[in-house]
Specification:
alpha+beta, four-stranded antiparallel beta sheet, 13 helices, 16 strands, binds pyridoxal-5'-phosphate
């Protein structure tokens, strides 16, 4: 089976892909309307509709559609005033996008560990770092070891499960830090009774090929703050000051989503409840089928959380299961089943090796053991059973 298989491509027959989009609603109708009416570019009714309907779904005041989640994160950091040489707190176990976005601003990541049960950013260690390693100076929080200003917290709700946000809200208020949610992997999840993406000052969503809903590529910045939303719209449309004349008040970006892609987004959003139900049904079936298998740790849902189980990931204990996560990956690949390891902890990657990592241990532990297994919203039960049977058969008897 091809190694280069990516979400968004049709799956070869007999192959069980990791996580691919499902396009079975009004996508064709809405996209055709864009083409028929010539509204294909970055202005159009679908962009506005997608923004309004996402804001209504989440229960936030404003939403600004952008070309992708990474651009959304870059913009979110800019509108919250992250400056060159500021520092931003971020987990080491994440997809690399939020960390790159910090560097696009000329700011620096400070890497935090993740919790052993939820795999989310360890808010206890964040508190220890801010209160033990930083000091207040002229109403700013200064990292003692680097001398730089800590400006923002950037928790990433990974794999469909929320971060424990209450302690972060408290820390952000206490130390005057901006709070940005990277909600790209956990649209539809809840923290207590709050939708993920409605908790921080600003949150960012993604609609790339394997996210819960997909526009092929796309993202959104959401916030309750009109001033921040207006500023995000301004920066993402080249900081254009005049509708006619080419006046630009600062350095802007061409980050707006096109109407054609927004049309896909509107159609996808109509189906979101079904998608979440499908993800949770898949998680429940894995739980039933794999719970008794020695050496596999299944993902949990904290009692204060509603997880979408967006990317169903489990841990493989080499001694108890009989092979490690990478050997299992290869064995499943030989059977036409696509899986994927967790992200390499970012503080060990070449561009980030010299950045500060605060007592990161669990991220490495999870990285060795984690394996994401097939969980497309359209995954047929028979294919899922094939995955379950293969994993039972490959394990230690
Ligand atoms: C997918 C993702 C993003 C954004 O990705 P884009 O492809 O730029 O939309 C950002 N952060 C995390 C953690 C992600 O998984």
């Amino acid at each position: 089976m091809s190694m280069s298989y990516e979400a968004g491509a049709p799956a070869p027959t007999g192959f069980v892909p990791l996580c691919i989009p499902r396009v079975r609603g009004n996508e064709w109708i809405y996209v055709k309307e864009c083409l028929d009416t010539n509204w294909i570019s970055s202005v159009g009714t679908y962009v506005t509709r997608f923004e309004e309907e996402m804001a209504a779904y989440l229960g936030v005041k404003r939403a600004v559609a952008v070309v992708n989640g990474t651009a959304g994160l870059h913009t979110a950091l800019l509108i919250l005033g992250v400056q060159p040489d500021d520092e931003v707190i971020v987990p080491s176990l994440t997809f690399v996008a939020p960390v790159n976005a910090i560097r696009y601003c000329g700011a620096w990541p400070v890497f935090m560990d993740v919790q052993r049960d939820t795999w989310q950013m360890d808010v206890g260690k964040v508190a220890d770092f801010l209160e033990g390693e930083c000091k207040h100076h002229n109403s700013e929080l200064i990292n003692r070891s680097t001398g730089r200003r800590v400006r923002a917290l950037l928790p990433v709700h990974i794999l469909g499960h929320p971060v424990d946000m209450d302690p972060l809200i408290e820390l952000a208020q206490k130390h005057n830090l901006a709070l940005i949610e990277d909600a790209t992997e956990s649209l539809g999840a809840k923290y207590r009774d709050l939708m993920v993406g409605t908790i921080g000052d600003v949150a960012v969503l993604s609609f790339n090929g394997n996210k819960l809903i997909s526009t092929g590529g796309g993202g959104m910045i959401v916030t309750d703050d009109d001033r921040l939303a207006d500023y995000a719209r301004y920066l993402t449309t080249q900081a254009k000051d005049d509708p006619l004349e080419y006046f630009h008040g600062e350095i802007g970006y061409n980050y707006r989503l096109t109407n054609v892609l927004a049309a896909l987004g509107v159609a996808q959003l109509e189906q979101i409840e079904d998608y979440i139900a499908a993800k949770r049904r898949i998680a429940a079936r894995y739980c039933e089928g794999l719970a008794g298998v020695q050496g596999l740790t299944l993902p949990l849902q904290a009692d204060w959380a509603l997880s979408t189980f967006w990317l169903y990931t489990l841990l493989v204990n080499e001694k108890k299961y009989g092979m490690d996560s990478r050997a299992l990956l290869r064995a499943l690949r030989d059977r036409g089943i696509q899986t994927r390891p967790l992200w390499h902890p970012i503080h060990r990657l070449k561009p980030y090796r010299d950045c500060q990592a605060y007592k990161v241990e669990v991220a490495d532990w999870l990285y060795e053991r984690g394996l994401a297994i097939p969980c497309s919203v359209g995954l047929p039960a028979l294919d899922q059973d094939r995955v379950i049977e293969a994993m039972i058969e490959l394990g230690r008897k």
